[in-house]
Amino acid sequence: xxxxxxxxxxxxxxxxxxxxxxxxxxxxxxxxxxxxxxxxxxxxxxxxxxxxxxxxxxxxxxxxxxxxxxxxxxxxxxxxxxxxxxxxxxxxxxxxxxxxxxxxxxxxxxxxxxxxxxxxxxxxxxxxxxxxxxxxxxxxxxxxxxxxxxxxxxxxxxxxxxxxxxxxxxxxxxxxx
Length: 177
Hints:
Layout (H helix, E strand, L loop, with lengths): L5 H9 L5 H30 L9 H23 L4 H27 L20 H20 L3 H20 L2
């Protein structure tokens, strides 16, 4: 061997060749490391998504819930003032309580996708003068029309809920005739 060939042979002996096993193990370690980092990021990301701000509920649902609260209050006062009509008024009150519960559930689904309870309404409507039977009938008729109009602005279950409430309010008006 010549002197010119000697440095290249020394160089080859100083750097070991990468074997297939080393290449496979190194590649596998890199994939596992990257996968673990990706899994960690994926686990942390959903935590921030669950804290999304609530959406606005449909105006037709919140308006209907407000009307139901007023009708409940008026019926409570009418039941206390006129026990003779108590049987019919108590049934109307039970219907309105069910309407309000259904509307509250629909609002909860619309706002929080059903995962978190909707905040309860802490404010009560202002106290109005005691309503006569004719005024209660007019309020039921107005509530039926408002719920029907609100149903036209919605789709799916919310529209069906308001349409059902509208029909019930119309039957209440007939019971009070």
